[in-house]
Design goal:
5 helices, 5-stranded mixed β-sheet, 8 strands, 16% strand, alpha/beta
C-alpha cells in the first residue's frame, strides 16, 4: 500500500501537474509491487460540478500510477461531500476491505458526517469485531481525513471529538495503524 493525500491544487502556488504528478511518478517508479494507493482525502481543492481539477488529478497520476494501481479514497473536507466524488470512485462514505491478510477500514470524519457518527461508530465496532473474529492474526489499518492527534499549529492537539469517539474503539480492537491527512503533514497513529 502507498499512503498519501491532500493532493489538491493550491493556486497560484502550484497545480496538480506541478506537485501531484511528481509524487505519482516517483511512486510508480519506486513502488512497483504496491497493490493500491490509500488517498486520505482532499483529492481536489473545491468540488462543485466535477470541474477541471478532477481531470488534472487523474491526468497527473493517470499515465504513471492510476493506470495500474487502484485508488482507495477517503472523503476529505475539500470534496464537499459532492456527488462527483461518489460517481468518480463508486465508494460509500465509509467502507472496509481486505487485502491479503490485512483489513482496511475507511471512515468519514467530516462535519457533514456528524449527524451519522453514532451509526458510523456502531458500524466501525461491528466491522472490527467481525474482522478480529475471522482473522485474529491479521493486521488492521484505519484511514480517515482529520487526525485525532496533531502537532500542527493550525490544528493544535487534533480533533478531540474524533479522539474521544473512535480512539477507544481502535484500542479495544487493537488497530495496528491509523492514517490521516488534512494537516498537510504526515499523520500516522500507532
Amino acid at each position: 500500500m502507498v499512503y498519501g493525500g491532500d493532493t489538491q491544487e493550491q493556486l497560484p502556488y502550484f497545480t496538480q501537474a506541478e506537485r501531484h504528478a511528481l509524487v505519482a511518478e516517483r511512486i510508480a517508479a519506486n513502488e512497483p509491487d504496491a497493490l493500491f494507493v490509500m488517498h486520505v482525502g482532499d483529492t481536489v481543492c473545491v468540488v462543485d460540478d466535477g470541474g477541471d481539477e478532477w481531470d488534472r488529478f487523474f491526468t497527473a497520476g493517470g499515465r504513471t500510477l492510476f493506470a495500474d494501481m487502484p485508488v482507495m479514497p477517503v472523503l476529505g473536507n475539500h470534496e464537499n461531500n459532492a456527488t462527483v466524488w461518489y460517481d468518480t470512485f463508486g465508494m460509500p462514505e465509509w467502507y472496509s476491505f481486505d487485502c491479503g491478510s490485512s483489513h482496511f477500514v475507511v471512515l468519514d470524519s467530516n462535519d457533514w458526517a456528524t449527524p451519522h457518527m453514532e451509526e458510523e461508530t456502531a458500524w466501525l465496532r461491528a466491522d472490527l469485531k467481525e474482522n478480529r473474529d475471522k482473522n485474529p492474526a491479521g493486521r488492521t489499518f484505519v484511514s480517515f481525513h482529520h487526525p485525532p492527534y496533531s502537532s500542527g499549529t493550525r490544528h493544535p492537539g487534533g480533533w478531540t471529538d474524533i479522539r474521544e469517539l473512535w480512539v477507544p474503539v481502535f484500542e479495544e480492537y487493537q488497530v495496528d495503524m491509523v492514517f490521516n491527512g488534512h494537516v498537510h503533514a504526515t499523520s500516522v497513529m500507532w
